[in-house]
Structure formats: C-alpha cells, structure tokens
Amino acid sequence: MDFTFDEEQRLAAQSLRELLNDHCQGSDLRRAANARDLPSFEAACATRRARLAELGLAGALVPAEQGGLGLGVVDFVLLAEEAGRAALPEPLVDVEGVAHPLLATLGELGESTLQETLVGSALVLSAAPGTTVLANAAFAQYLLLSRRDDELALYRASDISLTHRESVDPLRRLSEVALHDAKPIARVTGATTSSAWQAARARSTVLNAAQLLGLGARMLEIAVAYSLERKQFGKAIGSNQAVKHALADVMVKLEFARPVVYAAAATLAPVRVAHAAVAAAEAADRAARAAIQVHGAMGYSWEVDLQFYAKRAWALAGLNGGRSAQFAAVHQSLLRGELEAQWA
Amino acid sequence: MDFTFDEEQRLAAQSLRELLNDHCQGSDLRRAANARDLPSFEAACATRRARLAELGLAGALVPAEQGGLGLGVVDFVLLAEEAGRAALPEPLVDVEGVAHPLLATLGELGESTLQETLVGSALVLSAAPGTTVLANAAFAQYLLLSRRDDELALYRASDISLTHRESVDPLRRLSEVALHDAKPIARVTGATTSSAWQAARARSTVLNAAQLLGLGARMLEIAVAYSLERKQFGKAIGSNQAVKHALADVMVKLEFARPVVYAAAATLAPVRVAHAAVAAAEAADRAARAAIQVHGAMGYSWEVDLQFYAKRAWALAGLNGGRSAQFAAVHQSLLRGELEAQWA
Amino acid sequence: MAIDLQYTPKQHALRAEARAWLEANVPREPLPSYDTAEGFEAHRHWETKLHSDRWSMVTWPQEYGGRGLDLIEWLIFEEEYYRVDAPGRVNQNGVFLFGPILMEYGTPEQKSRFLPRLASGADIWAQVWSEPQAGSDLAALRTTAIRDGDDYVINGHKIWSTRAVYADWGFGLFRTDGASERHRGLSYVVVPLRTPGVTVRGIPQLDGESGFAEIFFENARVPVANRIGDEGRGWSIAMATAGFERGLMLRSPARFQRTAQRLIELYRREELTRREQQTAPIDPGVAATVTQCWMDAEAYALSTYMTASRLIAGGSIGAEASLNKIFWSELDLSMHRAALAILGARAELRGLAGVEGVALAKAADEATRWMDGFLFSLAGPIYAGANEIQRNIIADRVLGMPKG
Amino acid sequence: MAIDLQYTPKQHALRAEARAWLEANVPREPLPSYDTAEGFEAHRHWETKLHSDRWSMVTWPQEYGGRGLDLIEWLIFEEEYYRVDAPGRVNQNGVFLFGPILMEYGTPEQKSRFLPRLASGADIWAQVWSEPQAGSDLAALRTTAIRDGDDYVINGHKIWSTRAVYADWGFGLFRTDGASERHRGLSYVVVPLRTPGVTVRGIPQLDGESGFAEIFFENARVPVANRIGDEGRGWSIAMATAGFERGLMLRSPARFQRTAQRLIELYRREELTRREQQTAPIDPGVAATVTQCWMDAEAYALSTYMTASRLIAGGSIGAEASLNKIFWSELDLSMHRAALAILGARAELRGLAGVEGVALAKAADEATRWMDGFLFSLAGPIYAGANEIQRNIIADRVLGMPKG
Q: For an interface test with D, which of B162, B168, B295 has the most D Cβ atoms less than 10 Å from its Cβ?
C-alpha cells in the first residue's frame, strides 16, 4: 500500500505543465477561440501541437511490444490533470488515454494504422457505440466507431460523414458523426471486444475526471487571484468571509475528489471510476460557479479567461453519461449490496 | 383570492401567544422536564392547562351543531404555530386540530363522549391505524384507535394497555399502545371512515407543519439573541458574516415555508399538505442546527432552553411518515404527472 | 374575509381575456434573441403589439396606457404570459423601473415627452447604473454630469448596462456635484444613447451575445430638462426603484413556475426514454432536485400571492425584496443545473434552430435553451445586489444583528 | 514504487492478527456509556485489556507499550477496530493528545511517572482547554497558575472538558504570568482532578448525559514538576497538539466508513420492508444522500491513505487538518440526518436496552444510537475549532487571501 506518485510520474506531469505554461495560456486559447474556420483554428494551435508531439507521449498506454510506452492509466492521470488545468484544446487524453490503447486491441488488423498514428503522422480517435457527436473528429485521419458493444471497427475519417456542430466550449470542435454505408478498414467482434470498449470507457471516464480536477484547481486559482485584486466598498473582496468560505469549500471539494480520482486510475474498479466522475464533476462545477460569482458581473463576460475553463468543465461533466449517470451507477451498486465489499 | 388572515384569526393567535408568554417560558418547560413522575409532571403543567381550558378553544374544529365552534383548519393554523413557538407540552393540536373533529364524525355513537371532552372534563386523542406509540396518551380518558383504515373505534383509555416510553423530547410523554382484546365503546366502518382518517391525517400533518414553523421562528430568535450577547475574539459573534448568513438563510427557509403551510391549511390539497410538511420540517431542522451551532459548545448542553425547541422539532419532523415520506409523496405526484395541474 | 385562495369571477375573466389575446397574438416561433440587432427590433415590434391592446404595462394607470390592475391581477396576467412562452420583455427596464419613477417624480412635460413613446415601444430604455469600480456599491459612482448653462456635460464610464447595445435611452445616476462623496451629489438623469460623446460597446457574454454594454461618455451634453427630480436627490429616487415591486416585476413567480414545469417535462420524458431503452433510471439526486424545484417554485408563487394580498390590504413591505432575491436566484440556478444534468452529453450542444433535416436539431435547441438559461441563472446571485449582500441586509435590518 | 493500493503481506498479517484478537476479546454486549460512572469504569477496564496485548496505543514506540506502527498500519488497525464495533476509547485524550506531547516535551521523570499509568488505563486523562469566555479563541484564556515556591496555585474556571467528570487527570493551558496577554505567558500544566481546590461539575448534554464538565479552581496547588516544557511556552506546545495527527487519530476514517455501512444497511432494510408492505419507496433525496455519504466516507478514507503515504515517504503536512475537520464533520452530520429521516417517527424513541419482551426494544435501541450520534455530530462542526474558523484558516493560510 503506497498512495504516492513516483518521481517519474511527477516529472512527466511537470514537463507537460511547463509546456502548457508556455503555449496554452488564456491568450493562446483566445486566439484559437476567435478563429473563424478550421484552418485558422489549426494555425492558432500549430506551435503547441508540435511541442506536444515532441514530448514523447505517443502510445503512452500502448503495450511496449506494440511500440508504445506500456504505461498504465495511473501513470497518465497526472498528465490528464495538467491537460485540464490548461483547458488544452488538443485531444491528448482522448488519443493517448483512450483511442491508442483501444486501437492496440485490434492486434494485427490495426497494426499499420497504429504505427502511423504513433509516429504522429495521423490522429486516431474513438467513440463508444451510440455516440452521435465527437469532439476533434475534424482533425482525425482514423476513427474507431461502432454501432454495437461487441464490435470494434476502424474507419478512415474520409469515409465517414462528419458535420461541424457548435459546442458551448469554443475550443471543442464537435462533429456530428454518421456512418451511413462506410466500410471499416479493420473490424473485430466478440466478447473481448465488448470488454475492450468497457475498458476504454473506464479510461475515458477516469481521465476526464482528472481533467475536471485540473480545471477546478485552475478556476480556484483564478478566483483567488481576482478576489485579491478586485476592490469593493474600499477593500479587496477576498477579505470578505463569505468569499473566503465559498472558496475554502471549493478547495475541500477538490482535495477530497483528488484521491478518489487517483484510486480510480490505479484500480479501474467500476464503482471507483463512477465515484471519481461524480466527485470531480461536482468539484469542478462548484469551482466554476464560485469563480464566476466571485468575479461578479465580470464572470459573465467573454473578456475573462475564466470562461474557457468553466465551459470546458461543463462540457466534460456531461461525457460518458455525465455526472448523473455515474451517480446512478454508484447508487445501483448500493442497491445491489455491492458497496460494502469495497475494502478489506 | 385573498391570502391574508382576518382580524379574528390574528387576535385568537395573539391571545394564545400572550397566555404562553406567561405560562410556557423556558423555566416552565424546565420544571416539567425535571419532573420525576407523571403526577409531578402534571402538577408542573397544571396552571397552564387551566388557563388553556379557559381560552375557549374546545371543539374549535367541531361543527357548531355538535357543540363546537365550526371553524376550519385555516382558522386554527396560527394557533398551532403559537403552540410550536412555545414548545407547548399540551396536545392542543392533537386534541382540537385532530381528535375532536374526528370524534365528531362518529355521530350519535360518540355524542356523549364528545360532550364530555368538549367541556374539558376528559381528554380524547387519536392515532392513525398502525400507530404503536402515542404522545400524551397517559393523560387521556378516551382514545380513537384502529387497526384498519376503514374502521374508527373509540376506547376508554383504561381499557387499553399503555406503557410509558422515553422520547428524545422530555416534554413528550410517550406511551406504547397495545389494544389486545379491548372492546371499543363505539365503532364505525366503511368508506367514509377511511376518508375521516385521511382528513384527520391531513389536519395533523398541516398543523404539525405549523408547529414546526413556530418552533423554527423561536429558535431563530434565540440564536439571534445569543449571537448578540456572546463575544469571541473581542466582538459579538453575531457580527461575523458566517453567522449572519447562516441565520439569514434560516429566515429565508422559514419565510418561504410559511405561505406553503397556510395554503395547505386553506386547501387541504394532498400535495400542498405534503409540501407543507417537507418545507416546515426542513426550515425547523435548519433553524435547530444553525441555532445549536451559533451557541457553540453551549448549544450542546442541557442548560440552554434551546434544547426544548430543537428536540420538539426533531420529534414532530418524524410524525405522519416524516419529512421523507412526505417528500416521497410529492415526488410520486410528479412521476404521475399530477403536479402540472396545481394552478389555474 | 379570511384566507380564500379561490379566484374571483373578475379575476377569472381577466385570465380568460389575457389567455385568448395571447393565444391569438403570441408569435408561433420564438423571436430571435433581443441581444441581436434583428431580435431587438422583433421584440420592439412585440412591445408595440402588446401596447396596442393595453397588455404592455397592465399595472400602469389607464391614462398612461395601462389597465390599472392590482398586484394579484398582475400575477394572473404573468401566469398566462409565461404559460404560452411569450417573448421576453425587451423594454422591461422602461416599463417596470423607469416608468413608475417618472410617474412619481417627473414633471408633466417629462411625462408627456417620455411616457407615450416608452409605452408604445417607440423608445426602448436601458438602465445605466454600474461603473467599473462600483458594482453593488452604487455610492461609489464617479461618472459626472456637470452643469454648463442649460446642459449637463457628462464624462465617465458606465458598465453592465442591460439592453444598452440597441436601446434608445438610458436612465441612471450621475454625480452632478463633482466634489461630493458617496450618496450625496448624485442626480437621476436620462440620456439618449445615440448622441455625440456617447459610445456604447457590447460586452460579449459567456453565451457569445451582448446582453450588457459598456458606455463611455466624453463631454456628452444633455439638457438639464433630462434630470428627473431635484438635483442631488438622485440617490433617494434610485432607492425607490430598488424595493419590492422591482424585484417582483422583474422576476414574476410565473417565470419560475414555467421553468419548473419544463424541467418536470424534461425529467418525465427522459424517464420514459430510459424505461423504453431499459437503462438505469435518472439518479436519485437529480430526481430529488426536480421535486424540490417544483416545491420551491410553488413556494415562491404562494409567497408572492401572500405579499400581494397584504399590500392590497394596505400592508407595507418588509424584507421581501432581499428574501425573494436569494430564493428565486438559487431556485433558478438549481433548476437549470438539474436540467443540464439530465441532458448529460447533449448539454454542450449549441442551437441549430432552422437547420433542416439535422437529427440533432431538436436536442441542440433544447440544450441551448437550458444552457443559456443556466448561464443567465449564474448571474442571478450576482446582479441586482449580490446574494451575500442580501444576506447582510436580512441579518442587519430584519434580524437586528450588528454590522460587521 | 508508483501508486500501489494493494496491502503488503505484512499489512495483511497485521490485519489478521488484529481481527483475531478483537473478535476474541471485544465485549459481546455494548458497554454502558462512558459518561456514566459504571460505564466509565467498564471502559477503563477495556483500556487495560487492550494494553495487556499492546493494542492500546499501536503507534506508540515499543518502549512505551506500543507497537511502533506506522500510519497506514494504524489505519488498518482502526478498520478492524470499527469493523467489530469495539468500545469507544475513554482515554483517547491521553493516548492521542497528551501522550505524544509528553514523549516530545516531557522530562525523563515525567515520562516514567505518567506514561505507564496512562498506557495501562490506571490514569484516564481529560483535556482542560476551554474557558467560558474563550471557546475557539484559546489565547483569551484567563485561568491562572501562579508560582508559589515549588507549587503553582491555580484559580479560574475551565469548561467543556471532555471526559473530565470521571477522569483522574487533566492537561491544559494556564496563565503562569498573570500580567501577560494573548499567546504569551501560558504554560502547559497537568492537574489531578481529585485534589483540594478542584471542583468538577458535569454539564448534562442534549442526550441527558455528561460528556463535558466544568472545572472550578480555587487555590488548587500543583507542584511545578507538573509543568510540561518551559514556563511560558505552553502555547507552542499546545499548538503541536492541534495538527494533523490529532485530527486523524481522533477521527479515523474507519469510524465514518462503519457509520456509512450501518446507514446503507438501514436503508436497504427499510427498502425491503417497504417493498414487502407495498408502500412508497424511500424518497429520492434520502436515497441520494445515502449514496453520497458512502462516497464521502470512501473519499475521506482514500484521502487519509494518501496523506499517510506521503508522511511515511517523508512529506510534510499542509492544510489537511482544516480540510479534514470540515469534511468529516459535515459527513457525520449528513449520515445521521439521513438515518433519522429513514427512521421517521421511530427516531424520537429512547433506548430500551435490556428491557425484555418489549416489541419496540430493537427499534428504540437503533433509534437511540442514531439520535445520540446525531446529537454528537451536531457538535462536530463546533468543537476542535468551528468549521467557520477552519474555512478562514484554509482561505488565509492555503489560498493566501487577506485577513478580514
């Protein structure tokens, strides 16, 4: 029993944080958000994308024998948190945390595509069966999509109908996805496929929870900074007890969501994963509301960077069934008498 | 549409308040609570009981042709609130609000008992079918009890097995009730009986809600007074924003529970009654918690009067199924699509 | 005349008349947002239409184009208005805030100059209170209106003016005595927003539209005749705007009851879908919130009826403005959060109104309405006096607790 | 050695050993409350029993009768302790608060004088901090201990001393410099509670028992040798007690996990009954709260394991004490409120333990346990520093916000 991250895990997160400090500040996000079309959006993100590629995270969760780094989700969770902190527009979590290891389960069928995407010359994304809208699909060359739980199919993005849709988060480029009669370039079926989808969904859920943690922490920082700077009735609003207590409560929510997310990443136990999603979404939502309210009318405006983090938090909170479905999952476990067996 | 109490309703409540100001202060309650046995408890309450009897409320909700005042529940709701405010130990609400009008539905069968209890020479109480514990039964000469919804039976208390039980509220003398083979002195059955029980339950629920309102308001007053008196770090604790906001929130809860309780009393519509029970219990519970916490460690002690009001609030909040069952009733109405039709 | 929650025949008749008129006249399709140029004009047209049958300002006296309705009648009208999802009132600042002030403090000339155009929608009014350094603290205002002959010369910077992007006129407080401090030396002045020296700039909101504006004044001249009430008396006139009626008129209970109803519809529809698809029911937390929201919307309505009855009976106003503000703003937020939780992943979709043949269009429209409402509700606890300030007011003025 | 949430073989072995010992030795029937004379002695006996097999203070060094366990091992022991509902620790003030202070600041003589008797339960210790005018504000203490030869002469009035009604000794802060103010001039002194000049009076609580006491000092004399650490240094010694370990040791996560488990059992049992009786299910609000409580109890446990791991790895403590205090106290209150809501009308019944053949006995026992827990949990947000003060600490010290 050792519930601490090791040096390597912490250093990797540190490197990503430094990169994002340089290339993913509010001004960078604003430039991308103001882009009128896809090419100018990509241009606004080009430098950061290049730096990210150099970081060597490709195939982080892909087994070493398939050319990846062979890491576990727990090795990736702090990276996801950093991506959240920065409201990173790039789908680092969706690709390295979810799609790549899923692609690797196709075995030989997906081998050439895996090699192509690992070296960064192409992007692969995945979406659980039943998904109709997918973020960042417009940038992908390959998509793992399926209509059924027990089928995993790899498509060329160009074979699929993708239509741009607006998200509340200006940095999430959504596409409505329609398979029509597209033919996959590889396809597997059967029970192991359905467990591969389940595992992908668990990774996605826990890593999104980690992003929400990062977003929440960032919004808390922004709120504190603003409360020190902004004066009302002649003193910094941050000296009001009501403001202090609201932000202290945000910190409580964040700090008790944190170990839940890490434990979920370490165990991938279904109840822990669902709990992580609930706790992180709740903490991030609380942070967003408190931060917007501390900003007073300012929090309501496009001009403050806070909006980027808040909108990302709202978008991520709905994924994989959303906070409500994950809460229901924990509740169902309770009704089935499964919760008592979690320890010892 | 006129949502104001009239002069007569307000004056009746005013009279009761004055009586209770004289005879139902914390010191009076404490004397009764310290009583070791039933006779000394009754002695501690004797003056107040005599004054209450003089108030002329007997048969308030009994039709005039049966010797009552012929009032409606809405005429009684402010009186119930005053009884709550004072944590009145006597079962004014249970007798005049619930049992007497229920007894009146027995018609000729209960006529002589009704006349006896209306002139105050005997006390009648009622308990919904299924009840095993009844407050103040030890003081009653007659009990309306039944094993079934569609049966209403009047018993002599002396024919029934009553065993003293402790309540968390030292001023509620509980009895465990067992009918065994007792023979009722009057008995009716049938559909009208079950609606009589339902009406009694609705009256009990809404008038208990009114008592909870009064209790909540009293606890808020006590908390405010204490916060002005008690100093910490050199200033009255009531000057702390955290304390102010907590008490302001109690007031919000109380003030928005109030019209719900009054509307429930005026209409006796099932959803409104359930809503009243939920709102009043929530407001009183909030008031109790805030008041205890404002009192700091003092709130935890037997020495402050606050305890009497808090304990009464906790006891009343569980009656008629309790806050939880009433909330469930509103929720069931929602699921059945009944809530949309409440207005216009 | 004890408590009686039955409507009178006259009240029933009013409801029937309002319902018939609204059903016949409310636009079939929702108007575009009044925070766009096109939507603003569409809403101005709706104001004119309302006014043509005296439904625009039903509580105003008949002589000014109203119906002289009392507060309960007004509540009934509002219930009908929200029942049919009639358009938002683009001129609500003029109708509910400025109009009543003008009737009380304006000169006969001012009334005849402003009221008819306000009533007909010919002039749409914006409120011009806040400044960058004075949010909830109006006494910290610094924008000056200095007398120069028959004019005031205005200099300064106002912000968070609702509707000001497209409105014709603004009303607000200006410092007419440059040397004064705090509450003293402020006057209540109305300003045309399309006049030299006045620059209006929209502030894009979280939802991308501009409901608020900044206004820059550089030697803008308005005649002294634009001052309402005495010079230096602006503070007390403005405070008369800040009481109960203001809170009530701008946040009628019907609005929250309608939202609660839409939330229940969303909940029941979703439950039905899940039963059909045999997936897990909605989580009990959201289920409980939906029920609680219905109860709170009812409580707010009942409370308003009770207050209205008391006012009609000659009673006076207590702490209702602060209590109401806290209650409705938290309710509104709670309802929208619950709706977004039910929508799940659909919640992030932005509207596709008018896009034909798109599978997502209905879901996206619904999501947009709830998300925009959510963003708006986030501001609820902020504007018109932060809830924390309302709690201070309750504690200080009602509960009698000491100032901090 | 990345994150690894598997227990080691050594940890498994410890768990097995503790489980076996506890199952063999824990009293079959719950002991009477330690706030009664009889219950106090029964609990003292249990302390002695624990100590006889070195389970009394498992984190103490072996030389003082402990097992030198690390924090994670301690957590495992606690899980087993609560799993079998073992008795509350009547000497917890001594074991977790005073013992560690004595080991760090005491002289060799003091250690050999106090530690063995503390460890064996021969002496039960009470904490003697608060005074009527100094609740959370310890620097406002006024009770004096003035040097007179080789003695201190104590005068004043302490209050809210837990366990003091029946305890043998008390530890606390006294003003040894009568002219000093605030934090200066305080010393850490231990006092026998059965000595001339010391009057202990129980304070009946909401549940009718006396968990707290007032202590009146009238020229009570204690030798100077009863001072722990230097004269006038009491404040910093006391503050060393107020950190993370204190909060953790007194509120081990296992306690809240056990309560959450009992709550879930209550909930499931009630659901079953209602299904059998075909009555409405438990309301969704309570259902959601039960689920949330389980999650929060888990979160608290995981958080503690994370902190313990960090401390074992040489890390230092941040704001955990304040964060934990807020979290567990609100969780504890929430669990008990949910239980009372499920119990409904049964909740008001007081215990009938030992009353034979009474139909209500089981329900009344269960209700009493939850109601007493509820009353206790109400104090949670108050004692050991009100939650509002903890929120100030987080805001001021961790978030770096300005003092009010």
A: B168
Euclidean distance between the first and the last CA atom of chain C, given in angstroms as a whole number: 44
Size of interface A-B (CB pairs under 8 A): 8
Q: Is the pLDDT of residue B343 over 70?
A: no
- In terms of Cα–Cα distance, which of B121, B185, B115, B174 is closest to B152? B185
Is residue C323 a contact partner of residue C300, using CB atoms and an 8 Å limit?
A: no
Smallest CA–CA distance from C323 into chain B, residue: B252
Q: Is A10 on the interface with D (CB under 8 A)?
A: no
Chain D, 310 to 339: residues with Cβ < 8 Å from chain B are 333, 337
**Could you give the residue ranges of the DSSP H alpha helices within chain B?**
7-23, 26-33, 38-54, 73-85, 92, 100-104, 111-118, 191-229, 241-267, 270-294, 306-317, 322-335
Q: Mind listing the pLDDT tens digit for each residue in C19-49?
A: 999 999 999 888 988 888 999 999 999 999 9
Counting one residue from chain A and one from chain D, the pairs whose CB atoms sit within 8 A come to: 158
pLDDT > 60? residue C244: no
Please tell me if residue D400 touches chain A, with a CB cutoff of 8 Å: yes
Chain C: touching chains (3 or more CB pairs < 8 Å): A, B, D
ipTM, 2 decimals? 0.93
The pLDDT value recorded for residue A316 is 96
Between the alpha carbon of residue A180 and those of residues A177, C14, D197, the distances in Å are 9, 55, 92
Q: For the residues D202-217, what does the mean pLDDT come to? A: 82
Chain A hits for B243, Cβ within 8 Å: none
All domains of chain D in start order, with CATH: 9-90 (no CATH), 125-232 (2.40.110.10), 251-398 (1.20.140.10)
Q: Summarize pLDDT for C82-134 with one digit per residue, the tens.
A: 999 999 999 988 988 899 899 989 999 999 999 999 999 999 999 898 888 77
For A41, the enclosing helix (H) or strand (E) is helix A38-54
Does A4 lie at the interface with B, CB-CB under 8 angstroms? no
Express each pLDDT in D279-319 by its tens digit.
888 999 999 999 999 999 999 999 999 999 998 998 877 77
User: Can you give the residue ranges of every domain in chain A?
Assistant: 204-335
Q: Amino acid identity, residue A48?
A: R
Contacts of D341 in chain C (CB under 8 A): none
Q: What single letter denotes the amino acid at residue B184?
A: P
D341's CB contacts (< 8 A; 6+ apart) are B322, B323, B324, D283, D286, D289
Q: What is the pLDDT of residue D364?
A: 87
What's the whole-number average pLDDT of chain C?
Answer: 89
Q: Quick: pLDDT tens for D90-137.
A: 998 898 889 989 998 999 999 999 999 999 999 999 989 888 877 667
Closest C-alpha to A276, from A249, A258, A291: A258
- D244 close to A (CB below 8 A): no
The fold of A204-335 is Butyryl-CoA Dehydrogenase, subunit A; domain 3 (1.20.140)
Q: Is C90 helix (H, G, I), strand (E, B) or coil?
A: coil
Contact D268 A337 (CB under 8 A): yes
Amino acid at D321: A
Integer Cα distance of D50 and C335 in angstroms:
54
- C-alpha to C-alpha distance for C2 and B74, rounded to whole angstroms: 9
Nearest to D369 by CA among D295, D272, D259: D259
D245 an active-site residue? yes
With 60 as the cut, is the pLDDT of residue C384 above it? no
C-alpha span between B182 and D394 (Å, rounded): 64
Averaged pLDDT, A152-165: 94
Q: Is C13 on the interface with B (CB under 8 A)?
A: no
Do the Cβ atoms of D288 and C283 come within 8 Å?
A: yes
Catalytic residue among D80, D245, D320, D366: D245
User: What are the pLDDT digits (tens) for D23-79?
Assistant: 999 999 889 888 889 999 999 999 999 999 999 999 999 989 899 999 999 999 999
